[in-house]
Amino acid sequence: QVQLVESGGGLVQAGGSLRLSCAASGIIFSAHTMNWYRQAPGKQRELVAAITSGGDTNYADSVKGRFTISRDNAKNTLYLQMNNLKPEDTAVYYCNTVFGRPSYNYWGQGTQVTVSS
Length: 117
Known about the structure:
The chain has 117 residues and is mainly β. 0% of the residues lie in helices and 54% in strands. The protein contains no helices and 11 strands. Strands 2, 4, 5, 6, 9, 10 and 11 form a 7-stranded mixed sheet that branches.
């Protein structure tokens, strides 16, 4: 079955950096658009960044210029490099992909990112 396992979260001071990873299994990883979402306490889950199978990327306005999404298809792994972190980036970060007929959302368990001021 499909499994998405995030890692790399933690506690960092404002201005610091973290790199999140998402190891995928049970799918043809290279064929799918992969996404990073985040959910802060009391807020809705929001799309942070996406990368297509061809490598095209898209970012939320709030993270443009600070976050970089990438993928290593040989390792079936998705990454999110987060630089110049801000307290408002504090959230649980989730790896996601959607595929199938009918389409189904697959989620990882999430990794906590906490940015202190």
